[in-house]
Design goal:
Length: 256
C-alpha cells in the first residue's frame, strides 16, 4: 500500500509540472537563437568593444553556427576566438586555441592566416610556467612561434615573432641553468656538467651565459676534472672580462 501511495504521489507531481509547463509556455527560448548571423555578429562586436568578452563570444558562436560558410560566419569564428583570448585565463586560452585552429582548418587560404597562427602561439605562451617549473608549454610555444616565422617570413608581425622567440629561448635557457645549478648544489657534479654544457651548446644567445660558464667550471672543479674546469674558467675570463663571477674563480694551488 505504501508503495502504491508513493507511486500515485509521483504521478500527481509529474502531472502538475506538465500542467504548469503548458500554461507557462514551457522553457523560455534563448533570445540569441532568434537572431540572424548578421544581427548576432553586430551585437557581439558591441559587447566586445565594451570588453564584455564572455557575452560577446556567445553571440559570435551563434553567428558562426547559423552561417558557418558565409563571410559573416568566418568573421564570427575569428572574433569568437579573439573574445576567448581577450577574456584570459587558462581555460579561455585553451578554447581560443581550439577556435583559431578550427579557423585555419576551415579557411587555410585566408589572408588572416599569419595573424591566426600568431594567436595560436600566444595562446600557448600564455600557459608558460616559470623557469623553475615544467617547461612543456614553453617548448610548444617556441615551436609555434618558430612555425609562424618559417611560414610567414614577410608578415607584418615578423618583428613581434622574433622578439617572442628570443624571450622564450631565454626562459628555456634559464630553466636548463637552474637544473644544472640545482644538481651542482646537490653535489651531483656529472649531472650538473651535462646540463650546463647543454646551456652553452643549445642557448649561445643566453643573456647570462657567464654564470653558466662559472658553474660549469665549478662542477668540473668539484668533480675532479681540472682540465675541463680550467677551460671553462678561461672562457669566462676571455669572453666576459667584466663578469662578477671572475673574482669567484678558485685560485690554482701552487705546486709544493
Amino acid at each position: 500500500m505504501r508503495l502504491m501511495r508513493n507511486l500515485m504521489w509521483v504521478l500527481l507531481m509529474v502531472g502538475t509540472l506538465i500542467s504548469v509547463s503548458c500554461k507557462g509556455g514551457g522553457v523560455k527560448e534563448d533570445p540569441i537563437l532568434r537572431l540572424s548571423a548578421e544581427e548576432a555578429l553586430a551585437r557581439g562586436q558591441e559587447l566586445m568593444a565594451n570588453k564584455k568578452f564572455t557575452q560577446a563570444a556567445q553571440y559570435f558562436d551563434h553567428a558562426f553556427e547559423v552561417a558557418p560558410n558565409s563571410a559573416t560566419g568566418r568573421e564570427a569564428l575569428l572574433l569568437a576566438a579573439d573574445s576567448y583570448f581577450q577574456n584570459g585565463g587558462t581555460a579561455n586560452f585553451i578554447k581560443a586555441e581550439a577556435k583559431y585552429r578550427d579557423y585555419l582548418n576551415r579557411f587555410p587560404t585566408s589572408d588572416r592566416s599569419d595573424y591566426v597562427q600568431l594567436q595560436i602561439a600566444y595562446c600557448l605562451a600564455k600557459q608558460m610556467r616559470k623557469p623553475d617549473r615544467d617547461q612543456s608549454a614553453t617548448i610548444k610555444a617556441l615551436t609555434a612561434f618558430e612555425s609562424v616565422q618559417q611560414l610567414y617570413p614577410t608578415s607584418s608581425h615578423a618583428d613581434e615573432v622574433a622578439a617572442m622567440i628570443v624571450e622564450i629561448r631565454q626562459s628555456l635557457a634559464e630553466h636548463e641553468y637552474k637544473v644544472g645549478w640545482y644538481n651542482y648544489r646537490r653535489r651531483l657534479y656529472t649531472a650538473a656538467v651535462w646540463r650546463l654544457e647543454g646551456v652553452l651548446e643549445n642557448f649561445p644567445d643566453y643573456e647570462e651565459l657567464d654564470k653558466a660558464l662559472f658553474f660549469l667550471g665549478m662542477a668540473n672543479h668539484k668533480g675532479k676534472r681540472p682540465e675541463e674546469a680550467a677551460e671553462a674558467f678561461e672562457q669566462l675570463r676571455t669572453e666576459y672580462p667584466e663578469s662578477r663571477f671572475i673574482k669567484k674563480i678558485p685560485r690554482e694551488k701552487k705546486p709544493t
